[in-house]
Amino acid sequence: MSNTPALETDVLIVGAGPVGLALAIALGLGGIRVLMVERDGSRGPQPRAKTLNMRSLEHLRRWGMADAIRKASPTPDDLPTDIVFQTRLYGHHIATLPNIYFRGNSHADDARFSEPSEWIPQYKVEEVMKARLNEIRTVEQRYGSELLGFKQDDGGVDAEIRSTCGAKQSVRCKFIVGADGGASRVRDIIGGRLEGRYAYACNFNMVLRIPELNQNPPQHRGIMHWLINEDSPGIMGPIGDLWYVAKKLPRGSSGMTEAEIAHYLEGIIGKQVDFEIMALDPWYAHELISDRYRNGRAFIVGDACQLRPPFGGYGMNMGIGDAGNLAWKLEAVIRGWGGESLLDSYEYERRQVHRWTIEEAVANYAVLSADLLRGDLEADNAAGAAAREALGRDAIEQKRSEFHTIGLVLGYHYGGSPVIAGGADLPAPHAEHYDPVAAPGKLAPHVWVAPGVSLYDQFGEGMTLLTKAPQSQVIASFSAVAHSLGIPLEIVAIPSDAGALFPCAFALVRPDEHVAWQADYADVEVAYHALKLCAGIR
Hints:
By secondary structure, this protein is α+β, with helices and mostly antiparallel strands. The protein contains 13 helices and 24 strands.
């Protein structure tokens, strides 16, 4: 370790991608001191993550960023959030999967969530997050710095970081979190091993400037075009005035020359176009999950925990979910009202969600454009029309669950968690089917309580007791017990017209909006045991 005096902070976060940024913001808004270090000081227009799903936007709404995210999106308002299946971009239309983000004319058109999904590239998300982080005085950001190592004891963690100029600095913190990606240094130090299939297929992503496509857009517009043909199958779509293109590479290949890109583009688009390369990204499909997410005071989040094919858009979103789960638990423990079981619950809860999501992503990746190919698709005759009609039905049937994922995005649960009072018998979520009914472990059903005001907006910084009986003795019991345990508690009335969503008269909801306990009655003893359990106090 360095001989210079150690910096002191509450949480050291290693990695400043969207997951590390989200965790820093969530902790910083709670007044927790954070030092975030990142080796890379700048990012360009990455061709990967492009979707923030509705659950991530609900986290960002809670952290004060949802509106800024939408303003930062380069996607024009008139671009349909459709998935379009075609032979080529200027070829035959096959089918359209409409409105995959469930958007209406306003946010309130679908009562099941407070924020619809948004089509926005990762680097734009990071720009908004960094701007938000700059407003939080308890967070220090250090770019061009890397973690060298750390050791921990019963009272905290001693880490050593090094800047690009070679200067070393010791850091004393209460907790360290690795948001440092698939090659996580923090995971290695805590002894975590990725298990599963490694690099089982190679792919190539491109971000290109193609003026012709903006001047003369295809007849059927959408956020993603699946191009199905014999010589140039693949996927492409707009990102503002740029276009992303993705294709699977043959085994043994790891990239494409500019000449090969030009030839491929002519095939997938249907005519020759001028283009400018903005970013290239060869990547491998993995099916991997770490055998541990925690060792003492050290945790991992995001891609440090698991790697899966990007089909379904889960990567950045799962990482933001990890941050939303872990942040309030670390804050509760640092503040003194959360117990050790709260920290234990992080791995159980998120690993279960990761397993479900990896399984779905792998299934999605098993059917790509080339796998949908059949004869006569491009024939300008009755046989071609019949082939396209048949493929249209088949493509929608096979790919619908990849894009209509509200059941997995909002329906995942933490049933059986050591800090959830029940829910162990809840079934695994179904990608397309979401049943918004309160149950221990599930997301509290969303309700609009007034124009533009979500039930979630009324939740407190700690636990929230939702109630159908605002004058009940149960409220007095919970309030008294919460005060004695030092647990922040907000009392919020369940709207009368939302009673069917909440089968019990009372529901105790965590800061991450998941139901931890529910019942029709509780005295002081029941309230005491419920609050202790949900706060992880043994």
